[in-house]
Write a structure and sequence with these properties.
This protein is mainly α. It is 43% helix and 0% strand.
């Protein structure tokens, strides 16, 4: 059994729409999360005052990054409809 084989089997068993599987060692995940707020080894944060613009940029990044060789998965977090309303 190899790490890649285990990851393949887990990907087949665990497939939740909207959730990206990131199979890395728990301590590395925790350190990355504490340092960056991102749970995967590579991530992009987009910040700004307009949630709609941020979401649109995230969707554009998904389209650009998915075909990049070596990319395991790409997922832009969706902002809830309620969050897009100005308060």
């Amino acid at each position: 059994m190899t790490s890649d084989k285990i990851k393949q089997e887990l990907d087949q068993l665990i497939n939740i729409p909207g959730i990206t599987n990131a199979w890395v060692m728990p301590i590395k995940t925790r350190i990355d999360m504490l340092a960056t707020g991102i749970k995967t080894p590579v991530g992009i944060k987009v910040a700004g005052p307009d949630l709609k613009v941020i979401q649109d940029i995230g969707l554009q990044l998904e389209k650009i990054l998915k075909p990049v060789e070596g990319t395991a998965s790409v997922y832009s977090e969706r902002v809830g409809r309620r969050s897009l309303c100005q308060h």
